[in-house]
Amino acid sequence: MWLSLFVLSGALSVGAVVGGINPYDYIGNKAIAEVASEQEEPKPEVKVGKPHDLIKCAPPATITTTMQVLLREALDGKDAEGNERLPKGYKYAFYATEDNAKKNIAPITNEYVDIAGEPKVYWVRVYSVLDVSSGVPMPVTISKSTSEDCSFNDQLVSLSDMYQSGKADGTMKFDIATRFNTVYYGQNTKYIVRTKGIDGKGPINIIDQPAQPLDPNTKFEYNGSNNEVIEIEVTSKDGQSIGTREFSLHIEEVLLDQYTAKVEGLIDSTDENGKNKGTFDLSVVKKQLRANQDSIYLDLKFFERVRNEKNILIDTPIVDVTKYVYDEAKVSCKECMVLVKVNDKKLMTDPKGEKDVTINMIFTSRPPIKQPLTNLTRCGVAGEPQNFDLTIRDDEAYELIEKEGKKKEDYVVTYHISKTDAEKGVNLLKENFVSQTSKADKIWVRLSTKDGKNFNVSSFYVSVGYNNIRTNSIGNQLVCSTTDNVNLSGYDGILKGQQIIENNPDYPVNPLDADLIVKYYTKVDEKNKGKNIPIEQDSDFKEIIDDVYKIKLGEISEDIYAKVFQDPSKFDCPTDDFDKEGNVIYRKFNITLNYKITAKYLPEETSLQFCENISTGKQDSKRLEVIVPDLYNTGKSNAELAQDFNFKWTRWFKKDGKDASETVGSGEGKYFIDATEIGEYYVTFNTINGYNGIPTCGLTSPTWKIVGPPKAVVEGADETGMINSMEVDEKGETMVRLGVLDGGTSTVTDGYEFAIDNSAFQPSSQFYNVPIGEHVAYARNIKTGCSASIKFSVFGYPKYFTPNGDGYNDTWNIPGLKGHNEARIYIYDKSGRLLKQLSPHTEGWDGTWNGKQMPSTDYWFTVEFVNDYKTPDERNGRKVSYKGHFSLKR
Fold it and tell me: Cα(718)–Cα(720) distance, rounded to whole angstroms?
């Protein structure tokens, strides 16, 4: 059986676009390893030369500030090591960035680029026409030169050659207007046409005189036997020639019509309509089309040609020619063709715009075999492995071969554990295969010719199953949804009985390893009502496809029947099912599609905090509220609407380190509560009467987490609120740092602002220049406004004093205790001798004892006083004692 297909083929791209290389520059070169990989003899390695930077002479600024450069010039000639920058058999592409070049994306389609100002870097990738992914990105820098040595001719722009598909008679018109004024902006130009002979060899023949230049706005027609050269001359206003540029015209040919290509492939599969599908290696065709040395450098691209619904031929590129999949069901023809294109657009030879090359697709059909074969199943054996003779399926594997009149002696049947092994013909299974209880092993069968070259594969299951698979009872189901499709597969676990721990007659439990499936049915009529006829035998039962049941909102479904099977694709065991009386073989239930309501919850913020009045010490409450929907658009208030709903409010909290919960409100119309204790709150509710008399689905609110009020903390304060280990400067001032206990055990500062006494609130928790004495600290939550306060005292004392008579720091005392009239300070030397007893209200110790000056050294002190706050405080009247030491410096 042979068929063919439409495939489109494209030659290499030409012109000054991406990879703009004339294919005929490549013909005849046999010294390229990549290109010559399809030839038998090895070829030397090709090294691509590095491109050279382009430094172009800038035109005078009075004429133009920008000029154009032809990027292609960077690939002219050889590099310093003698390597061709653009070897034969190679193409190129320029990119704006190195990343684009590496990824081969967004190539520059116009090789003429403007340069102005600073130098600019472009990237070029030179690659083999046979490997478009080859080539290493290389940089090219374009810059201007304003050297006085630049002549006017140096300032002209190079021109790229033009390529065109030829007519049948070898002539072609070229639109050279695309080159007009490209050479230099703002100058008068005239065209002199001359030929240089074939490939630029031979005498120069002037066709048109300079006095009669070619009109650039017309198409130029010439005989394609020669490569024509067009010269552009730039003249001054007085007619003096001051510079020239030239470019060539090429008529191209691709001679593929002399070949007849063919490709052989193996049919992978055949669909139910007998249409073949196969994988073919079109690289074979590529080699055939390049068989002539003149076309070895053609960069062929393949296309699949199919007809759309409007009977229009559509050409689709074949990306990977080594893995082309032919599908006869999609593409079918008696004689299919390959079309040859250039740049994926222009045909090279045929005047109609396309040239057909026949490709014969030769199919070799695989041996026919049933898909799949019949399973081998044993049932009712519990916990014992079973031996199976796989050769029992030999005759079934040969069956279709014999129906075609072929001899089974010419074929071989083998068995394998995987499809890959079967296709490769390796790792054959022994005839005696051991399978475990309730395990289904998929066995792959290979039917092949004796030489093994042509084969087909199929499969079947070897399984040991259970008898008496049961279907569990299921009650009527309420479904919460806003759609009218119910997926019944959600009830599979209940019906299988595998969600029930206790095994009793009401809840039959199937083995967990039974590989079960559930099927759902409806009944066409009730003629068999009350009869115990198996579902699979009763024509009145209709299977629900894909387990999707359609039902309207607020309706109760018809009777739905369910039955559990051990997967019938793998097992062939009975599915007897019994109720208490032992005579029911299916389970029946109904579905009600409930109205799924929505509600709004206040506050929307779910992280809340109690606030405490810093004046009275009383804590506020937090109202939690549900805004219920007006299902029937009655216009009632929320309190009135809530009377149609049942609510239950729950609080979760910690008790003795363990989770605990309690109901904090419930009943009809209980749509809010005022929470007064910390914890996590939520509410569940549903309608009382429901939609069409059917209760709605219950809703559960988000969880509100409420923490206790913030507590201000003064860092370094002891249990009395006194800070006694702070450094106090010479002015008797120090730094105090505040914080907040915000429902946790660690202090925080984020989200709070702070103040001390009557100062303004500030975002920083640090306060400088706080004097010794009593103070009040405040903390306020920026978002909620919750505030907290705490009293503290700064008991700082000078670390040293200098009794030198300069009037500064001449005595030592603790000024922070002046508010305590009863306070007494005792000063001792190293031996514990009492040197001085004083009150905070005195000037302090002057460093003498009995009229004698004491030496410079350390001295110790003790302080005793009673707390005496100006406002009521539980710490009032408490005796406080502190000890410390200081230095006397002279």
Answer: 5
What is the domain-level CATH number for residue 882? 2.60.40
Q: Judging by beta carbons within 10 Å of its beta carbon (0-12, 13-18, 19+), is residue 713 exposed, middle or buried?
A: buried
Task: Classify 361 in phi/psi space as left (phi over 0), alpha (psi -120 to 50) or beta.
Answer: beta
The tally of domains found in the chain comes to: 8
Question: At CA 542, angle to CA 537 and CA 548, rounded to 5?
Answer: 135
**Alpha helices (H) in 146-295, listed in sequence order:** 283-289
Closest by CA position to 16, among listed 189, 182, 152, 150: 182
pLDDT digits 0-9 by tens, 52-92? 998 888 776 666 666 788 898 899 889 989 999 988 778 88
- Choose among 597, 572, 543, 538: nearest CA to 464: 572
Q: What's phi and psi for 531, nearest 5 deg?
A: -90, 145
Question: Are residue 44 and residue 142 in the same domain, yes or no?
Answer: yes
Token reading at 47: 């090294």
Cis-peptide, bond into residue 372, ω within 30° of zero: yes
**Domain closes at, from 201, 230, 252:** 252
pLDDT tens column, 508-555: 677 777 888 899 998 866 554 545 556 666 677 888 888 899 888 777
What's the angle, vertex CA 262, arms to CA 257 and CA 263, rounded to 5? 145
- The 8-class DSSP code of residue 28 comes to T
Q: What's the pLDDT band for 612 if we cut at 50, 70, 90?
A: confident
Phi-psi label, residue 608: left if phi above 0, alpha if psi -120 to 50, beta otherwise: beta
Q: Which residue type sits at 28?
A: G
Note whether 303 and 428 are same-domain residues: no
Distance of alpha carbon 108 from the chain centroid: 29
Distance CA 869, CA 875 (A): 8
Q: Which residue has the tokens 């229009």?
A: 312
**Residue of 537, 539, 536 lying closest to 525 (CA atoms):** 539
The answer to whether the beta carbons of residues 356 and 338 sit under 8 Å apart is yes
- The answer to whether the CB of 353 falls within 8 A of the CB of 22 is no
Task: Please check whether residues 114 and 51 belong to one and the same domain.
Answer: yes
Structural domain includes residue 470: no
Token readout for 189 is 């130009």
The answer to whether position 231 is within a domain reads yes
Q: Count other Cβ atoms within 10 Å, centred on residue 807.
A: 6
pLDDT at site 411: 95
Pairwise pLDDT comparison (2 vs 141), residue with the higher score: 141
Among 189, 217, 252, give the residue marking a domain's end.
Answer: 252
Domain range enclosing 773 = 711-794
C-alpha to C-alpha distance for 183 and 156, rounded to whole angstroms? 6
Helices and strands, number each (H, E), in the chain: 6, 60
**Co-location of 148 and 21 in the same domain:** yes
Assigned token pair, 800: 């040293």
Distance CA 394, CA 407 (A): 14
Provide the CB-side half-sphere exposure for 839 (13 A, CA): 7
pLDDT in tens, 839-854: 888 889 999 999 899 9
Question: pLDDT at position 726, please?
Answer: 55
Q: What global pTM score does this model have? A: 0.42
415 and 328: one domain?
no
Enumerate the β-bridge partners of residue 76: none
- The amino acid at 473: S
| Widest distance between CA atoms in the chain | 139
Q: 235, 213 in Cβ contact below 8 A?
A: no
